[in-house]
Design goal:
- By secondary structure, the chain is of the alpha+beta class.
- β2 and β3 form a beta hairpin.
- The longest helix is centred in the middle third of the chain and has 19 residues.
- Its main location: membrane.
- This is non-specific serine/threonine protein kinase.
- It is found in: Cell membrane.
């Protein structure tokens, strides 16, 4: 065994063995956590083993499964490249599949397995934070932790599998169209509810690393917060803040936290404001390809957020005007409030949720694209049937010729509604009927 592995094993008590948790019944820690949520402040190097055993066997964390490394190796096909999903500060993530024979009471399901990188930026404490927080906190907008592996030098986490990956990928790397307006609002609401859940705990939890890559999405675009490695318990009693070493991601951290190290739940609210601005603009919080002030998203667009006449400068051009003007104004005003330099002027996450939820009902002023009718070709090779397929509000429609299997793209046109942001309408509306595609004004 390498010196690195020996050192790591020495740091962590060897009593961690998969499927064989040891419970010290005389431990004072066990008595203390039985009536309240376990926190990181309860931990010390000499009691880690007991704490995790208590967690996995407590009423709150009893549904956590302790996996062996060989089991996780099996369900990921030896962590094969074909199952590789991505990599973060913690380590690499692989897709796996648990069948109903692996563990009694554990249903067959796809999972995501995160492997701690011993050379990475995050270490054993961050791995433990994930187990502590996600093992006890349950909410529809927090990713579900199914179990963990703590065997010799191995540290792994097993989560529910999220079909659509993270928001960073969907917003900035998505191919075949952009995220529709209402989908963006739905994601913002889900993420806000996740933060609100943490902040409203009896002992508040500060997430500390809220960003697009830590917001996972299921098949219905329900947002769930993941990666709790930097999460920390909030101030208690008369304390107004906690002071920590500045950690997080550049572009998302609140200015007062960067300057003083003072951390509160309002620090998370600022980070949420950055993500909300990313959803509005379709731009990253920091763009290294730009110069000067334009690199920082907040510095560039915050001045426009309260001016409704400058809303067009803010909104993502890929939306092509397909959004509610009223909803966009309210979302922009909310982002401006969250991004206030004065933490006391920022709203609570509960207030953020209440502001965002009604925006899902503002649909009357969302422009609707035209119905595309495919005219059958005349002549010897007459086509028997045509069909138009659409997905959401994608930039193009796929038109298939069912008879001969041909496929082509038909550019979609946004309906004018007299908005300058939507271009000049349909310039080619009066084309000859011999064209295979006719754009109709009738909205469907």
């Amino acid at each position: 065994m390498s010196l690195k592995k020996l050192a790591f094993k020495f740091f962590t008590p060897s009593c961690f063995k998969a499927n064989k948790p040891i419970i010290d019944k005389k431990s004072q820690t066990s008595k203390e956590i039985s009536s309240r949520r376990l926190s990181l402040s309860d931990l010390s190097n000499s009691s880690v083993c007991t704490v995790l055993s208590d967690l996995s066997n407590s009423l709150i964390g009893s549904n956590l499964h302790i996996f062996s490394h060989s089991e996780l190796k099996k369900i990921t096909q030896s962590f094969s490249k074909s199952n590789y999903l991505g990599e973060g500060g913690f380590g690499q993530v692989y897709k796996g599949f648990i069948d109903d024979k692996l563990r009694p009471g554990l249903e067959a399901q796809p999972v995501a397995v995160k492997v701690l990188d011993l050379d990475g930026k995050q270490g054993h404490r961050e791995w433990l934070a994930e187990v502590i927080f996600l093992g006890q906190l349950k909410h529809p907008n927090l990713v579900k932790l199914i179990g963990y592996c703590c065997e010799d030098e191995y540290r792994l986490l097993v989560y529910e599998y999220m079909e659509r990956g993270n928001l960073d990928h969907q917003l900035f790397k998505r191919y075949g169209g952009t995220l529709p307006w209402l989908t963006r609002i739905k994601i913002a609401i889900g993420a806000a509810k996740g933060l609100s859940c943490l902040h409203e705990e009896e002992k508040s939890v500060i997430y500390r690393d809220f960003k697009t890559s830590n917001i996972l999405l299921d098949s219905d675009y329900t947002a769930k917060l993941s990666d709790f490695g930097l999460a920390i318990d909030g101030p208690e009693g008369d304390e107004t803040h906690i002071t920590t070493r500045v950690m997080g991601t550049h572009g998302y951290a609140a200015p007062e936290y960067v300057k003083t190290g003072h951390l509160t739940t309002m620090s998370d609210v600022y980070s949420f404001g950055v993500v909300l601005l990313e959803l509005l603009t379709g731009r990253r919080s920091v763009d290294d390809c730009r110069h000067g002030r334009e690199q920082n998203l907040v510095e560039r667009f915050k001045p426009f957020l309260k001016d409704s006449h400058k809303l067009d400068r803010v909104m993502d051009p890929r939306l092509e005007g397909q959004y509610s003007t009223i909803g966009a104004r309210k979302a922009a005003a909310l982002a401006h409030q969250c991004l206030s330099h004065n933490p006391k002027c920022r709203p609570t996450m509960t207030s953020v949720v209440k502001t965002l939820e009604p925006l899902m009902d503002l649909t009357n002023d969302i422009p609707i694209g035209p119905f595309v009718y495919i005219v059958p070709n005349e002549g010897k090779n007459k086509v028997g049937e045509h069909r138009v397929e659409r997905e959401g509000r994608a930039d193009s429609d796929v038109v298939k010729n069912e008879s001969i299997g041909e496929e082509k793209l038909v550019e979609k046109k946004a309906k004018g509604h007299h908005r300058s942001r939507e271009g000049h309408g349909f310039r080619n509306r009066n084309k000859s009927l011999s064209s295979s595609t006719v754009y109709c004004d009738t909205a469907v």
